[in-house]
Amino acid sequence: MKRSFLHVDMDAFFAAVEQRDRPELRGKPVVVGAPPDRRGVVAAASYEARQFGIHSAMPSREAGRRCPQAVFLPVDGERYEKASREIFAILETFTPLVEPLSIDEAFLDVSGARLIHGTAEEIARKIKETVRRKTGLTASVGVAPNKFLAKLASELSKPDGLLVIPEPPEEIVAFLAPLPVSRLWGVGKVTRRHLESAGIRTVGDLQSLPADRLSRITGKAAAESLLHLARGEDLREIEMDRREKSMSREHTFPEDCRERETVEAVLLDLVEDVGNRLRLAGKHAAVVHLKLRWHDFRTITRQLTLDAPCCDDFTLREAALSLFRAQPLSGPVRLIGFGVGGLADGVNRQLSLFKSEGQPRERKERLSRAVDAIRRRFGEEVIGRADARRGAARAGGRPG
User: Which domains does the chain have, with CATH numbers?
Assistant: First the structure.
């Protein structure tokens, strides 16, 4: 049976939800994220705002400079989550093979659904119509014989578009040939620069390149992957269970911070937030990460592998502080982040509890969970670290 994949991607999702719920904003440039007079970045921009060159992850001050008349709104996670649940419920009426990529995009395998709902293109049109009718939002959909091509098609059809990639291999190669090489997965700024310096600017240039020459530019593994993609080949299946592989939190200071004590206090708040998320998800982490960004946007990351996976605040704090205190503050700090990786289900740690260090670690975990329960019942501030709360207050409140 020939395969049919869809990539469904909501258009300017956060901003579109705001414009849907506030009709007076329709047709106006809308930016979701930090206000333009504060430190922070753009989370989403409406297509009206994008005409001014505003895009996600852009500093909000730059967005305000480019479009002073833009309406800036704070992120409303609960409303976006609600809209996302409605959209995914619609997708699952067409096929159970849905792979979420984020809150507003997903892959679908509709190969079997064609017997019930029609061709893949007809299914894509029905999804667009149903999403618009039931949620008032628009989606762009790519239709193709594999995931890579489906995502590429949705990107090329935005906004509110639908693009079907042809199925014959020779037509796929011809379709890809004129596209810039940056359209291929794995080609970021550095790889693109290396390829362009070798005269490789389009996918067609890559298609005609000998494998050994490309290997000298990108390395053998990357070359093999790029040549497959340049021919439109992708054998990946839908991943029904996309487990979170990492968790992290960051805090951007309202003003560049020079006080180590204040930065450290915010770091400890971030650790508690990440630890709480770990425990709620029933996960343990094997690696911790520290991120520091200076006033001039230089950024460093440090990581530490733990002796045993954990989810308790005590071990996470100790690891975070060891990384932070080993790092001299070479200038004012703009942003600090803390994250964990190497996540595994908590049950996978049971054997470590029989080791001599197991019981103390288990007690720390139980105490951390008890603190979680008290905070949920009586509020975040009922139990806290006095030094950290004072530091967070100086830094502009709880990290976010």
Answer: 1-165 (3.30.70.270), 170-230 (1.10.150.20), 246-394 (3.30.1490.100)
